[in-house]
Amino acid sequence: MTVASNSGPRVAVDGDRLRLSGSWTLDHAAAIAQALRSAPQESCPIDATGVDRLDSLGVVQLLRHARRTGSFSDAIEFREDHLPLVTAIEDVTDDRPRGKREYGFAAAIGRLGFAVADNWAEIVALVSFLGESLVKLLRMAREPRRFRATATVAHMEQVGLDAVPLVALLSCLVGAVIAFRGSNILADFGATFYVVELVSIAFLREFGVLLTSIVLAGRTASAFTAQIGAMVSREEVDAMRTLGLDPVDVLVIPRLLALVVTLPLLTFIADVAGLLGGMTVGAYGLDIPPQAYFARMDDTIELRHFLVGMAKAPVFAIVIALIGCLEGLQVKGTAQSVGERTTSSVVQTISLVIVLDALAAIWFMQMDW
């Protein structure tokens, strides 16, 4: 048994339990630290029902002791009148400055392992969320009254119509750059006229859908995460559940459907803008008249190139919408969490879109399509 003072904190070993008594307050901070250092450092239940007085410092010290010994916070039994204080403090007990970053091979391997585990957890959560969304879509098909047409149209305007100028401008400029740089290389072989196929095939198969998806990943996925995350932090999502509303039906499905409809349309606009950018460079920089440019396109470009690009658009739309909504629902309720999840959604969507586009390009190449 360790006694700090007559009215101070006391720790007694009772079999496999620690029994606490006395006053665990700021006035006895040094005695609390001494008492916990002298207590057994292995994991064991802690009975704090005998504590007379308890303040925030006492709660923090006990929770950190439990964490240090490998116990869970619920292994500590508090008095009923102390539980509100414990509940209020429990979530912030580990908000301490992090230690200095460790360097070396072992530390690097450790960080790599944690990163792999975190990424795997994100993949599992995304696949699970995809399954839940598909189930809710099938339920909505059976129960059309669940469909929210007004919200879907509003999101279509936000993610589709409002993005048209940006997508068209970027695609036109990229098409012009590809035509200009490609013509410099092709001119060395006397094949400047083949810049028509270069721009057309590149945009119809890859650049049109990829540029559009990257723009929407940065513009729309972040907006979805911030909007839903703000609702989570204001407890509006909990209020929906209290009212018997499904957050997936109300928040996720309208955004998912809006993006699935608008991304192929934006991809078509990006294709047209990219081709016009290439034609502009051809007409004013390469002495290829527009009539000859379009005639060359009509002779050499096949429908399959356009279909390959358009087939990717719904897949990329599902990825962007699901990641944006999932990250928003995972917000913990603080402004910092909203910012972290918004950044994570943008990084994940752009990375996954590029990876899927590369895999699709390899697959279509192997299929000779």
Give an overview of the whole structure:
With 369 residues, the protein is of the alpha/beta class. It has two domains: 2-90, Transcription Regulator spoIIAA; 145-366, no CATH class. Helices cover 70% and strands 7% of the residues. The chain has twelve helices and five strands. It has helices spanning 29-38, 56-68, 83-90, 105-142, 149-159, 164-187, 195-233, 236-242, 247-285, 290-300, 303-329, 335-366; strands at residues 2-3, 10-14, 17-24, 46-54, 76-77. The protein has a five-stranded mixed β-sheet, with helices on one face. A hairpin with a 6-residue loop joins strand 1 (2-3) and strand 2. Helix 7 runs antiparallel to helix 12 (335-366), helix 9 (247-285) crosses helix 11 (303-329) and helix 11 packs antiparallel against helix 12. The chain is elongated, with a radius of gyration of 30 Å. Mean pLDDT is 85; it is low at 1-6.
Give the helices and strands, then pairings:
Blueprint: E1 2-3, E2 10-14, E3 17-24, H1 29-38, E4 46-54, H2 56-68, E5 76-77, H3 83-90, H4 105-142, H5 149-159, H6 164-187, H7 195-233, H8 236-242, H9 247-285, H10 290-300, H11 303-329, H12 335-366
Helix pairs in contact: 1-2, 2-3, 4-9, 5-9, 6-7, 6-9, 7-9, 7-11, 7-12, 9-11, 11-12
Could you give a short description of this structure?
With 369 residues, the chain is an alpha/beta fold.
